[in-house]
Amino acid sequence: MDILYLLIPLSLVFVAVIAGFFLWAVKSGQFEDMEGPAHRILMDDDLPEEKGEADPKNTEGNTR
After folding, report:
1. Separation CA 54–CA 21 (nearest Å)
2. Global pTM exceeds 0.70
3. Helix, strand, coil percentages in the chain from 3-state DSSP, rounded to 5
């Protein structure tokens, strides 16, 4: 029963620390744009290279 005198205040301090981290994250903008990075991946502008096209920067493989 004596352990409750230690565990209850310790758990209250733990909850306060977690609440402090959560409030810091909210105030610093960590949860502002949750969908932006996911949309950025889908809207990638890189075009795949066609098979058989030679890379103009690669001069090692050109034997013509």
Report:
1. 52
2. no
3. 50, 0, 50
